[in-house]
Input
Amino acid sequence: MKAESIKAGLAKALSRQVRLELTNGRTLPVPHPDFAMFSPDGSEFIISFPEGGFDIISVDEVAAVRVGPRLPPSSKVSPPTTR
Output
């Protein structure tokens, strides 16, 4: 999958449920677009998790970006904060 397609899907995580389906069968929820950061050349990106930790993923590992229904206002996740 191309980085631009992944970025477009992740941008929808502001108001919808978004999951990345990887070629190895794993599924990663993305609670907010700010939880993803792409490398300068767009070949890989980091997904951080609200509970801590992160994964580094090659764009070639992404099989699909699944965009679900709209989130109710009370369930939207805030972007990560810096300390």
